[in-house]
Amino acid sequence: MWDRAAATAMLLPSVVAIAVFVYGFVGWTGYVSLTRWNDVLPNYAWAGLRTYADLFDTFRFRIDLLNTLRFTLAFLAGCLGVGFTLAVLLDRGLRGEAIFRTIFLAPLAISFIVTGVVWRWLLNPGSAQLGSVGINLLLERAHLGALRTGWYTDPRIGILAVALAALWQLSGYTMALYLAGLRSVPDELREAARVDGAGEWQVYRRILMPLLQPITLSAVIILGHISLKIFDLVVAMTGSGPGFSSDVPAYFMFDTTFRGNHFAQGAAIAEVLLVLVALLTVPYLIYSTRAEAGR
Question: Can you give the residue ranges of the ABC transmembrane type-1 domain (predicted)?
Answer without folding.
Answer: 65-286
